[in-house]
Write a structure and sequence with these properties.
With 234 residues, the protein is α/β, with parallel strands linked by helices. It is 36% helix and 26% strand. It has one domain: P-loop containing nucleotide triphosphate hydrolases (Rossmann fold, 3-Layer(aba) Sandwich). The radius of gyration is 17 Å and the shape is globular.
Length: 234
């Protein structure tokens, strides 16, 4: 579904931050990208989404070469992005925020609020509440719901556990795993929280100094926690 070849992106002191990234993500895969702060994880997500243009290399989504496309065009191909920090519209209600994920999707005749509410019941309870009055965990569920209402094939998640209590993190991970199984959704998640990674992902790519230094199955990390220490110092 997503193929990244020889990708370089970002600049610091004249050198690319991301260096020769190679990734292949198949339909239905759930890939976690891990690495210490400042290794280029968010830059990778923004480059896939078209928010930052690559210096060189290619990104293919299905049969389309998307490296030079605008974010809106990439979104219309079926890619959704939940940025770090959620970025919900604080003065909008839950329902109004969800509608923003529906805008510009002419192939969807009506927003399926009920499906989103079945996945995230708290959003049904708060549908007329302004997002700015909600907790961080509720806002994160709203941000994910807003991305999913556009019926994407690929979901990009950047640090979804940030600032959220552990019980809600686990709930979000379980919900996303169920959605992936039900809908065939493909997910790439940037995450430091090892519990979420273990609960949601099938494989993990480790990013170090802008390069992928290893990619392993999540089951290998569960069986050998020393891998996290090896690649992340945890």
């Amino acid at each position: 579904m997503l193929e990244i070849r020889a990708l370089e992106s970002g600049y610091i002191r004249g050198a690319s931050v991301l260096k020769g990234i190679e990734l292949c993500v198949s339909t239905g895969d759930r890939l976690a990208v891990m690495g210490r702060n400042g290794m280029g994880k968010t830059l990778l997500m923004k480059t896939i989404m078209g928010l930052i243009k690559p210096n060189r290399g290619t990104i293919h989504f299905r049969d389309a070469q998307i490296s030079d496309l605008a974010p809106n065009d990439i979104s219309n191909l079926g890619v959704a992005y939940v940025p770090q920090g959620r970025e919900v519209f604080l003065d909008f209600t839950v329902e109004e925020n969800l509608l923003m994920g529906f805008v510009g999707k002419p192939w969807i005749t009506r927003p399926n609020f009920e499906k989103i509410f079945s996945w995230f019941p708290i959003l049904a309870e708060r549908r007329n509440q302004k997002a700015g009055t909600m907790s961080g965990g509720q806002q994160q569920q709203l941000a994910i719901g807003r991305a999913l209402i556009g019926e994407p094939d690929l979901l990009l998640l950047d640090e979804p556990s940030e600032g959220i209590q552990p019980s809600i993190v686990q709930e979000i991970a379980e919900t996303l795993s169920n959605i992936c199984r039900e809908q065939g959704l493909t997910v790439i998640v940037v995450e430091q929280n090892t519990d979420l990674v273990k609960a949601l992902s099938q494989s993990v790519a480790f990013l170090e100094n802008g390069a992928i230094v290893a990619q392993v199955q999540t089951s290998e990390i569960i069986a050998d926690p020393g891998l996290l220490e090896k690649y992340m110092g945890l």
